[in-house]
Design goal:
single chain; alpha/beta; D-Maltodextrin-Binding Protein, domain 2; 3 domains; 3-stranded antiparallel sheet; DNA binding; WH-like_DNA-bd_sf; LysR family transcriptional regulator; DNA-binding transcription factor activity; LysR_subst-bd
Length: 307
């Protein structure tokens, strides 16, 4: 009985002889002489414990054992080649899987932009976007459950590396029959005393804090009729005619029956910002390449000024 231990080179020699049915042609194909090739075949047969080739001076045939072994040998070589290729691709960051949490408002255009860019530039990378709230993203990044996050948290946590990738102004969302919807120009002061749909402190509250700072700076006090946590809910309430709202400009892509958007001049320091965050230990080639693709894809939305 053979030892069962053989080398990949011996398999290559056997497969080549089996395909050519000629030691001379196989030796030429393998760029070697016939005697070493014959020794490799004999060593392989000894390791397998079975005769794989019937050979005489004129004809070479596969034995029954050889026919069975050829299929397995071919598969082993293909798997070995794939393993080497995969390892090299992984080292270059061309394959693998990454998970990214994102705040719901990033779904209005930014997450699809990222997915399209990754599909084009890193087609063999599996990308799994997960809708989460900012505090959930930060916790998941700290624990290592996520590779990246699109979050409204600026990332003062020492365990995270953050950079601003989205900075947008606000649009005024109005019911279509609202008096301001037909105004020649809408100013921030026009919202003073107006029914207003705001953001709640539930599950983050970043946009609520921006609104509070904005209204304080402008010296106005809209009449708050409802606070909710998600932009699509804010817009649904506006569509119902319950009041006006200030929403991130990307939300202007949403359409509802009784909803309209107006431009409104807002001081530049009051923005809707989103940051790309990752754990400090997520520094492998795959993470670095994906991070680069994400930043490139969102470059036009990053805005000016410190990130």
């Amino acid at each position: 009985m053979g030892s069962g231990k053989f080398e990949l080179n011996q398999l290559r020699c056997f497969v080549c002889v089996a395909e050519e049915l000629s030691f001379r042609r196989a030796a030429l194909r393998l760029n070697m002489t016939q005697p070493p090739l014959s020794r490799q075949i004999m060593m392989l047969e000894h390791a397998v414990g079975a005769r794989l080739l019937d050979r005489n001076n004129r004809v070479i045939r596969l034995t029954a054992a050889g026919q069975s072994f050829l299929a397995s040998a071919t598969e082993i070589l293909e798997r070995a080649e794939f393993a080497v290729l995969s390892a090299r691709q992984a080292e270059r960051g061309e394959i693998g899987g990454v998970e990214m949490g994102f705040v719901p408002s990033a779904a209005f255009g930014f997450v699809p932009t990222i997915i399209a860019a990754l599909s084009e530039r890193l087609p063999d990378v599996t990308f799994n976007p997960i809708e989460m709230m900012s505090y959930e993203i930060v916790e998941a990044l700290r624990s290592g459950r996520l590779d990246f996050g699109l979050t409204r948290s600026r990332g003062t946590e020492a365990q995270l590396d953050t950079v601003r990738v989205i900075s947008e102004t606000f649009l005024l969302a109005l019911p279509a029959d609202h008096p301001l919807a037909a105004a020649a120009e809408v100013r921030l002061g026009d919202l003073d005393g107006q029914a207003f749909i705001g953001y709640s402190t539930e599950r983050g509250g970043h946009l609520r804090r921006v609104h509070q700072g904005l209204f304080a700076a402008a010296g106005i006090a809209p009449r708050l009729v409802q606070e909710v946590s998600q932009t699509h809910t804010v817009l649904a309430l506006v569509d119902r005619g319950l009041g006006a709202a200030l929403v991130p400009a990307s939300a202007g892509a949403l359409r509802m029956t009784n909803l309209t958007f107006r431009q409104i001049r807002i001081p530049a320091r009051f923005r809707s910002d989103i940051y790309l965050a990752s754990g400090l230990r997520r520094t492998g080639a795959l993470q670095q390449r994906v991070r680069g693709v994400i930043r490139d894809a969102l470059a036009e939305y990053a805005g000016a000024g410190p990130a």
